[in-house]
Structure prediction request, 114 residues.
Amino acid sequence: MAEHTTAPEPAEQAPVEDDGSPDMAAEVLRHAQDMTDDIFRHGPEAAGDVKAHVQDMTGDVLHHSRVAAGDVKRETPVLIGHFWETLGDLFGSGKDESEKADASDEASDDGTKD
Prediction:
């Protein structure tokens, strides 16, 4: 990568007073040309950096998407189980306690009804 140059710190710059003189206009024009030259000089390098960063991000997104899909696949049955347990806790399983006791008694009998 090429070395980046930076503008001098404001403390290093001499204060410039705009007196409207032709010298001031020439200075502004020179500065604009310098900035334009910097853009053209550093533009391709910056574009290459952006391209590399986007490619890296694409790989990261793909990796994390696969991990997330695996997490969803693994956790969905667990969440469904919790959902059904919660419904049972809130609304009962469809049998009241006496029916549960009768069913338990029948299972322990010889299988015949009275």
User: Anything to note?
Assistant: The chain has a mean pLDDT of 79. Helices lie at 22-91, 97-108. The chain is about 70% helix and 0% strand. Residues 22-91 form the longest helix (70 residues).
